[in-house]
Amino acid sequence: MISELGPDEVFVFGSNADGWHAGGAARTALERFGAVWGEGHGHHGRSYAIDTMSGLGVLAEEIAAFVDYARAHPELRFLLTPVGTGIAGYAPEEVAPLFVDAPDNVVLPPEFVEALAAE
What we know:
The protein is an alpha/beta fold. It has one domain (about 10-115): Leucine Aminopeptidase, subunit E, domain 1 (3-Layer(aba) Sandwich), CATH 3.40.220. Helices cover about 30% and strands about 20% of the residues.
């Protein structure tokens, strides 16, 4: 559970496309890290929303866009929650491979590190 951020850190969480951040990591992002109600994609405040609720194809596209964004912002450190494994219902083994090309400034959650190590 991420409850605080360092000066250059960004909280990366799963959202729905409409940005209704009512529970879980999305609610934490809204209450603590500058997520914006109604914004279900991208960087807002000290958070970054990834739509996890619109199907696996959309999730893959969202993750690819995030990885590109992280690569373009090496001055930031992105703390990734286990996106897609909560209410969206995917297993870490389904989501983790989508982050295999993430740059070093993306910190994967333990669930994803374990899933990738098992491959």
